[in-house]
Design goal:
binds flavin mononucleotide; 5-stranded mixed beta sheet; alpha+beta; globular
Length: about 400
């Protein structure tokens, strides 16, 4: 947004706010996502093939920027082959594809749990044709996992939480503390999945971790190319949300009105001081300040298999939190591997692991960093693309 446009926007603010009130009061514009965009959260409807039924649960997995980067091949009977969609990656904020592969781990875990619910045990082989290379640039179409179905599975108690799971992208209630016992329960769920968990709800430790969230968020927001990555994936209003059913979905009356009035420029990061700038900053500052605890997951090294395993453990931790009524929200900025983030990447490893940032794939690496707390309102389900979009022909 250029300066002239900003002045016009600032001048139009009062009109916009009044119009929003009128529109919202009339119930014309609701913030609720269009029903079609969130259909996935009803689970498998009309699906009879057990693999497709399980996939209907797996597509609700948490994943960075809600890109939903999964592709499956079902042509081999009794087998599901999982691939990554090369068009659904985040080259600026996730240049190594680490977060994308954590999203594959989450998908895989939900798939395995949903197969077990139908009595099917999954024999998972990661990287049957070798691991994807270290940089996104060298990624090709080799499978992430081959899943062979067998009989005799035992149901997983977390199955019932899959369709209730939500990522709370909102401020937490600062009047409600998270107990040390609840943190231990969460960490135990990740440890059981083979990860190295950590965390803190100690008042003395929280300020430094909150500051890490806020300072690293500012780097992502103020680095034009990383900010633009998010802007390009932003969907505003029911029409865009329904069309894409992915990315960052914004549906509040205010943002829709601003967009309709041409105030939301998709071609440039919001100028310092503009309403868009302030909204983005306020969101991250609120999230950081209202964190009532933190948890993190690390792996002994940083191989592709460890990244996938981190995703499997992460979603189990979030399902456990769902069962407990506790919010778990990733704050991934400090763990991102782009150059401008390096000081925060280093500090994150010092603060959480008491050691420097990894220098090689053999060093302990933080994979997930999340804030914990209780939400004040119900968290909406996020859009998902239809099942057919994930199944390779
Ligand atoms: C590896 C990974 C990193 C993520 N990082 C962030 C983050 O930094 N900020 C955020 O708001 N959500 C983050 N998320 C959560 C996703 O935004 C969320 O899963 C996605 O929007 C879908 O929403 P849902 O989990 O409610 O279904 C992350 C998820 C994963 C798996």
């Amino acid at each position: 947004m250029n300066r002239r446009k900003f002045i016009w926007v600032a001048g139009g603010g009062a009109i916009a706010a009044a119009s929003v009130a009128t529109v919202a009061a009339g119930g014309v514009w609701s913030s609720t996502f269009p029903a079609g965009a969130v259909q996935a959260w009803e689970g498998p409807v009309g699906e009879t093939d057990p693999r497709r039924r399980a996939l209907a649960y797996a597509i609700t997995a948490p994943n960075p920027h809600n890109l939903q980067p999964w592709q499956v091949d079902l042509r081999e009977s009794g087998v599901i082959t999982l691939f990554t969609d090369p068009t659904r990656v985040l080259p600026e904020t996730d240049p190594l594809g680490r977060q994308i592969l954590i999203g594959h781990g989450a998908f895989l875990e939900l798939l395995v749990v949903a197969l077990a619910q139908q009595g099917l045990a999954a024999e998972v082989t990661l990287w049957p044709q070798g691991e994807l290379p270290a940089s996104l640039k060298g990624w090709d179409r080799r499978p992430v996992a081959r899943i062979v179905l067998r009989g005799g599975a035992v149901a997983d108690p977390l199955f019932g939480q899959i369709l209730k799971r939500r990522t709370p992208k909102s401020d937490f209630d600062t009047a409600r503390a998270v107990s040390a016992a609840d943190l231990q329960t969460l960490m135990a769920s990740a440890a059981a999945a083979g990860l190295l968990p950590g965390g803190s709800v100690e008042p003395a430790r929280l300020p430094a971790l909150r500051e890490l969230c806020w300072e690293s968020a500012k780097v992502e927001l103020l680095t034009p190319r990383t900010m633009m990555e998010s802007i390009r994936l932003t969907r505003v209003g029911p029409r865009e949300i329904l069309k894409h059913r992915d990315g960052i979905s914004l549906n509040s009356p205010f943002i829709r009105l601003a967009d309709t009035a041409g105030m939301f420029d998709r071609n440039a990061p919001p100028a310092e001081g503009s309403p868009g700038y302030k909204a983005a900053m306020d969101r991250f500052s609120g999230h950081s300040r209202s964190a009532m605890g933190f948890a993190w997951l690390s792996t002994a090294g940083n191989s592709r298999s460890e990244q996938v395993r981190a995703g499997r453990a992460y979603v189990r931790m979030q399902l456990k939190a769902t069962e407990m009524g506790l919010g778990v929200h990733p704050m991934s900025q400090a763990l991102q591997e782009f150059a401008e983030m390096q000081p925060h990447f280093e500090r994150a490893h010092q603060l959480m692991l008491g050691k420097g940032a990894p220098r090689s794939a053999g060093d302990e690496t933080l994979q997930m960093f999340v804030r914990l707390g209780y939400t004040k309102a119900q968290v909406p389900a996020t859009p998902r693309r239809p099942l057919a979009k994930f199944v390779a022909a």
